[in-house]
Specification:
The structure is a single chain. 10% of the residues lie in helices and 52% in strands. With 201 residues, the protein is mainly beta. It has one domain. The longest helix has 11 residues. The protein starts with a strand and ends with a strand.
């Protein structure tokens, strides 16, 4: 029995705008390591017969400067509104056990930091994507409309290799502060991206 997820994706990381690691995993981060917070809001989805629509999953990553060399540290946060069954199914998808994009990244992950349940509230408005995590964590990215562009459309990065897709709106973090898996995350002003995502396996 297969699975399918569709929804909205956005991220914030420790690199400058735009993140060179997203352009290509072998370019090297702007700093000694890349810390990334990846948000997947599942608008509609089913995993092995279990409806997971309306839930959010976030991945917290800590990688070496050159991502393609592997040894990533990766933790997964799952919406506390999920039932135990829903959480188990989502954890299997995002852990790569059920195939799909996260399985393809598996060889690059050196340490799984585990799965935690936490409250998450996601909103999207006029090119701004926001998540509140737990009591005081928050990440917000705003899509960048290039100076002089009158149609309001954001700048885009296309043709990339990334689990969430290959066509992203380029964004910049306007709020960024949270703690997870022993990592302190605070990258306001740094790189962000946003895109719809659709996975199936």
């Amino acid at each position: 029995m297969g699975w399918k997820l569709e929804g909205q994706y956005f991220e914030n990381c420790s690199c400058d705008v735009p993140c060179p690691c997203t352009v290509s995993l072998d370019l090297g981060a702007d700093r000694d390591r890349c810390h990334a917070f990846l948000v997947f809001q599942v608008e509609s989805g089913e995993v092995e017969g279990v409806d997971v629509s309306g839930l959010t999953v976030a991945a917290v990553g800590d990688t070496p400067k050159v991502m393609s060399e592997g040894n990533w540290r990766l933790g997964v946060l799952i919406d506390d509104k999920a039932s135990d069954e829903q959480a188990d199914k989502l954890a299997a998808v995002f852990g790569g056990q059920l195939g799909g994009p996260m399985e393809a990244l598996g060889p690059l992950v050196g340490e799984q930091l585990g799965v935690e349940r936490v409250s998450m509230e996601v909103s999207h408005e006029n090119g701004t994507h926001r998540i509140k995590v737990g009591e005081d964590g928050e990440v917000e990215v705003t899509e960048i409309v290039p100076f002089g562009k009158e149609d309001g459309q954001p700048a885009r990065l296309v043709g990339i290799f990334h689990p969430a897709g290959d066509d992203f709106a380029i964004a910049r973090a306007t709020k960024s502060h949270l703690s997870a898996f022993g990592m302190e995350f605070a990258y306001e002003g740094r790189s962000g991206f946003a895109s719809p995502f659709a996975w199936a396996a």
